[in-house]
Amino acid sequence: MMSQVASPSISALLDARLAGHSLPQGLYTRPDVFEADLDVLFRKHWIYVGLECDVPEPGDASVVELGTSSIILLRDDDGQIRVVHNVCRHRGSRLLPPGPSVVSKLVCPYHQWTYELNGELVHAPHMGIDFDKSCRNLKPVTFRSIGGLIYVCLSDNPPDDIDRLVEVMERRLAPYDIRNTKIAFQTEVIEQGNWKLTLENNRECYHCSSNHPELCVSFIDLDFGYDPQSLSEEDRADAERHQALYAERTERWEAEGYPSAAVEQLVDCATNFRTQRLIIAGNGESQTPDATAASAKLLGSMTRKDLGDTHLWGHNCWNHFMGDHAVTSLVIPLSADRTLVRTKWLVHKDAVEGVDYDLEKLTNVWIATTDQDSELVARSHAGITDPAYEPGCYSAFTEGHLDKFSTWYIERMRAHGY
Q1: Domain boundary residue among 127, 145, 163?
Q2: How would DSSP label each residue in 5-61?
Q3: Do 195 and 74 reside in the same domain of the chain?
Q4: pLDDT in tens, 119-133
Q5: Rg for the chain (alpha carbons), in Å?
Q6: Global pTM?
């Protein structure tokens, strides 16, 4: 009889990770690791789930599903943002289906228990005159609106280092007034790969020049590292001039009141983020096919198109804020080998399609880039499932952020008992 070899524990897989290398195979592929990831990284940490402009008017609601958890982002009758669990306090039925809804009250379709938009239970038929409705309100979800971006934590003990993200990004996002934008377009792409591969792929531009021709019109891959010894003398001189331009441009932007320098909270922390104002290549205005602005109506109080791209990433999102529009992407793990990437294009709330902006120009670059990345993630996941896979070494020049992400991942799993 052939003996069964026990699979290593999750703890043993975490132990096996080598500094400077990608993760052991099982951390990308095993269903038990996927469930642990959901529990630790998506229930006990702050995650980005949507925007205030997802629910622009009282009665607007949007349901976001995260594994077995489901939450309702909504705007109440007083115009305030609320986030509640999508679980009726009677017998647990879902109140609303996934996606957007418009409601006057939250009415459970099962037994008609009825809640105000602030979560208060106001009607529970056939429960008797002594039934105390006050202790059956919908369970609230802890959330923070950061410049119009909604972050939630499903834990009763949310990490307090979210305060650093708030401090940095409220000021950086203020000129864009994301709270007063609207969603011009949205896509949902299901990548055939583990969510950590989706994040790793986004955190490096080693692959950009050979895979993202549309993005490279406006995005400068050298911004995320290069090996100077691998460049020709001419290319190395160009790279050095670019770095000097960055220093000069960042100093000027900062002096003009636009925070621009890189801020990183990537390891030895709970809330993982990075932000920096990036130079836009070519015509320098926006991430479009010709690097000129897609919308004539600029965001918020912006009066200039030469302020680059304020990028922000977290452990389940990446975002780009430009003078004329913004692109925001949310990552939701679906299984060990399937990941949802939900991307939204934001314009000024008063911008009119066909008058102020052309939708194809607005969306072309990131639709193409997301589709290309989806193929890359699928190829990567397929290779990692091969018995021949073994963790590879990261480039110290172009993949330093991947090493930090993997290190952070190990740290956070350890912090929660794995």
Answers
A1: 145
A2: PPPPPHHHHHHHPPTTBPPPTHHHH-HHHHHHHHHHHTTSS-EEEEEGGGS-STTEE
A3: no
A4: 999 999 999 999 999
A5: 23
A6: 0.96
